[in-house]
Write a structure and sequence with these properties.
Layout (H helix, E strand, L loop, with lengths): L14 H21 L81 H12 L4 H10 L5 H4 L7 E2 L5 E5 L4 H6 L6 H12 L8 E4 L13 H18 L3 E5 L1 H8 L5 H4 L3 E5 L4 E7 L2 H6 L4 H20 L1
Amino acid sequence: MSTSGPIETGHKPSPGEADRLSLALEALLDFYAASGVDGLVDADPFDAFSQTLQPATQSRRPEQAAAPAHPGPARREMPRPQQPATPQQPAPARAQPGATAPRPPAQQTPAAVIPGEEAVDAARAAARSAASLDALHKALASFDGCNLSRTAKNLVFADGNPESRVMFVGEAPGRDEDLQGLPFVGRSGQLLDRMLAAIGLDRSSVYIANVVPWRPPGNRTPSPQETEICKPFIARQIELVDPDILVFLGGASAKALTGVTDGILRLRGRWMPYRTATREIRAIATLHPAYLLRSPIQKRLAWRDFLAIGAALKEGENA
């Protein structure tokens, strides 16, 4: 068998076959070069990722048999960043055999209150004892009969002018109100400010509060028990402010303070009496600013209500 050609065959290739084989080999080499092959395969297998290629023709000495055939490249030690020196702290003392480790003092958290008549009676007593708005504010801050005071960040008591002739009452504060401790300061409050400006009022000429002075977790609706517990405080707050006109922002505050059962769309725009321990106050319900943000088309109804409020204020000035 002849082996004189570039490929081992059973016969000597003719000149035409040799040319075709040469062209095929050149095409194969071009394919390897285009594929990224840049070296020949060694006779001995090795891991090219962890070892360094050694010449295949290099003879091995007997004393090198125990050494790896292809040692890896020497690693360079990277300098580590110098850490600032810190004072050494004394090691903790070892516990003596049989001794028990001292327990950290337990943090005392106020226990939750089960809403009931006792909590409502306590709220009534605290509200009656307040002879001024400052005293009522302090009574609310120290009152622990409502669980909402344990989850809220701040007590949202009131904002505006307590000498005003008109008082607005909402249901409960939201996230922005809870953070700032003031009622109606979020998007709803910004809309309320624009509504007040439309009839010539601002925060310095009105008084704003809520039935529930603490934000319910997750902005959920206050439960009937929570509303009942907080109601004596807002009733006393209305008595102390003694406005000429009381405006319920939304159906929830109107229902809580007057006992009406109609929906807000039927209730709004109607004047109704609100009785305190000393006199009767004209009251009117209108749409809550948060509802108007969800249903802008209903702003026309709120505009009518605010026009009626502005007209009633002017009538009182002329009387």
